[in-house]
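User: What would this chain look like folded?
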Amino acid sequence: MIRLKTKFAFLLVAVATITLSHAQDRFDSQVADLMLLQAKPIQKAIGVTEAQRAELNKLAAAHRQKVEAFFQEEQKKKVNPATITPSNPTIVGYFAELQAKAFKTLTASQLRRLRELTLQRAGTPAILIPDVSQRLKITSAQTSTIRTAVSSFQTFASTSAQTVANGVLSQYKNVKPKDQADAKRLRAELDSKLRTAETKLHPRIVAAQKIMDRKIELSLSAAQLKAWHSLLGQPFAFR
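Assistant: Here's the prediction, encoded as structure tokens.
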């Protein structure tokens, strides 16, 4: 009898160990970006099954209905829909509920991979995410250095983009279309020139981003840098 109890206890421990090994990590659920899961290449990368996709679509549809119902109720109260932003407490609550349910449809390994892809997509600025900073044990001094590097890059990128756009737009400042057909032609021409200008600017933005990455990585200790690269997982080719 004692032997049976011992064996039974051993089995309970084994089952508990297996269960824990498949449990989702809170860190992954806090950092992973649900919106990234909308892309088919991402779904494929983490191994989403047809059954999981169907469940995710079902959850998304239910979420959409709740949001639409909320907007309708607000309109009845004469609330301007344009004033309802993503930061609205109700909208935030709905999304948190959707995310919790959506993540539960994934396995622990799928959620972990989604978190890795989320960090890869976000790049080194993701180190400022509270949960990531805590995991890497980022100091206040390092946080300041990283924020400065990110801010410098963002300022350069936005200023450069605005300068390029203004340069193209200035060419059409005093141009008046002869008719609707000419207006359509001018719009297509303008859009084409803007895309060309953005394409030419892209290498400069990439170079500036690499400088930012380098500054941020240099602010990390060897152990922190190793841990950061570990959080990224296997590189994924985003398009």
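The chain is about 75% helix and 0% strand. If you want, I can go into more detail on any region.
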